[in-house]
Design a protein that fits this description.
Layout (H helix, E strand, L loop, with lengths): L1 E5 L1 H8 L7 E5 L3 H7 L4 E2 L6 E4 L2 E4 L16 H12 L8 E4 L9 H7 L1 E2 L3 H7 L1 E2 L13 H11 L4 E2 L1 H12 L8 H12 L5 H9 L30 H12 L3 H10 L17 H15 L4 H17 L7 H13 L3 H12 L4 H12 L12 H20 L1
Parallel strand pairs: 2-5, 8-9
Antiparallel strand pairs: 1-2, 1-6, 3-4, 4-5, 6-7
Helix pairs in contact: 1-4, 6-8, 6-9, 8-11, 9-10, 10-11, 11-13, 11-15, 12-13, 13-15, 14-16, 14-17, 16-17
């Protein structure tokens, strides 16, 4: 039995990064022999044997051979099994294996470069910082790989996207292959993007390859829509590029990046004759943000945050000009969802204005106001009275 560390963990070790997820390939053994050595293993794979041992995944080779793989093993059967597995992977930089004769001990980075094997292009692409598919049909074998590729673009911003990858992404979506993916799988890829160093690269690559629809249909076409009039936006800046820039600024905060992604969705729905202005895009954007979040099966907190970001970001950007009643409505809504800090972080990234101190002062004043006993338990009438008292409290503070 020979156990190899495979995939992203090998890539990260070779790059000098902290490896997170450890996936192993089991060669030269039957599942029964594997279970003799690892009696606590739990089988989770159905299409082919996959086992979990202490949270790590151990898989057996997929069917097929590929004699072109560069491999230091002497056993021809092991070589073919390993080569077939590597050839079935998505990108060349992930089609890597590290044999571990003394499993689970890992070699040093320098030793790993001497021991690691991959497809013919794997090592060169890793050194050259290139994102390229293993083969012409690599993405089509699992259409989710379109979004994985865009996610790697966000996670490795110093890598170059090869034209072969761009063409493969476009081909998969043009054939309608991504439409049948489960929302949970696509949403999980997006969650990883939101915590990446450059999450905006995800949108940029999907736009370049015409692969935003159907999953990110609300952003489809926004690369050609002006973000807004000068001086609030740079000349020629598109809605998509503005969105991507805000996501990059707010990285790696997942929730804030998601709010950045959704905040201007309404600009894709404003009448073209109004451009570059987008009057009313906040109200237009709220239902679009909710629809996108629900389509991706994101957590309820994310769905609400995206909807509130779209609806309130323009109002919050003019915070110092707002009447007490509007401030009370805004802060009451945000505080109820625990999103006050997040929305005003978005506003600061979007406009450069920092209202955090004023907001915290106003919120503290509001929360100190309580209904007198005689006004309690009156339903809507109680809510209206509480709002009125809070407005009066903010007005008094402004006068002082």
């Amino acid at each position: 039995m020979l156990i190899c560390l495979v995939g992203g963990a090998v890539r990260d070790i070779l790059l000098g990064r902290d490896a997170q997820d450890f996936d192993y390939l089991v060669l030269g053994a039957t599942p029964g022999q594997f279970l003799e050595r690892f009696p606590t293993a739990q089988q989770v794979g159905k299409a082919f044997p996959v086992y979990l041992v202490d949270g790590d995944e151990y898989a057996f080779p997929r069917v097929g051979t590929c004699p072109s793989c560069c491999c230091a093993f002497g056993d021809k059967d092991l070589l073919n099994d390993l080569a077939a597995d590597l050839q079935s992977r998505d990108l060349t930089i992930n089609a890597l294996a590290l044999p571990l004769p003394n499993h689970p001990a890992l070699p040093s980075r320098a030793e790993a470069w001497d021991l690691a094997v991959g497809t013919p292009r794997s090592m060169d692409d890793l050194r050259g910082r290139i994102l390229r598919p293993v083969g012409a049909t690599s993405l089509a074998e699992d259409p989710l790989r379109v979004f994985r590729a865009a996610r790697f673009c966000a996670q490795f911003p110093d890598f170059t996207v090869h034209d072969d990858l761009k063409r493969a992404m476009g081909a998969v979506v043009s054939q309608g292959l991504t439409a049948s993916l489960s929302p949970e799988r696509v949403g999980a890829e997006l969650r990883k993007v939101l915590g990446a160093p450059k999450p905006g690269h995800f949108l940029r690559l999907l736009a370049q390859t015409d692969t935003l629809a159907p999953w990110f249909a609300e952003l489809d076409g926004t690369a050609t829509i002006p973000a807004g009039p000068q001086p609030h936006h740079a000349e020629g800046e598109s809605v998509l590029e503005h969105t991507a820039q805000l996501m990059d600024q707010l990285a790696p905060d997942e929730l804030c990046c998601w709010m950045a992604l959704t905040h201007d969705l309404g600009k894709g729905a404003t009448p073209p004759e109004q451009h570059p202005s987008h009057h009313g895009h906040d109200c237009l954007g709220a239902p679009l943000a909710r629809r996108l979040g629900e389509r991706l099966a994101l957590p309820v907190r994310f769905i609400r945050a995206g909807e509130l970001a779209a609806r309130w970001h323009t109002t919050a950007a003019h915070y110092l000009e707002l009447r007490p009643g509007t401030r009370v409505d805004l802060l009451t809504t945000l505080h109820a969802q625990r999103l006050t800090n997040e929305l005003f972080r978005l506003v600061r990234a979007d406009t450069g204005d920092d209202f955090s101190q004023q907001v915290q002062r106003d919120l503290a004043v509001m929360l100190e106001v309580h209904l007198p006993p005689e006004w309690q338990n009156r339903g809507q009438e109680s809510g209206e009275r509480l709002r009125e008292l809070r407005c009066q409290a903010l007005t008094l503070v402004e006068k002082d």
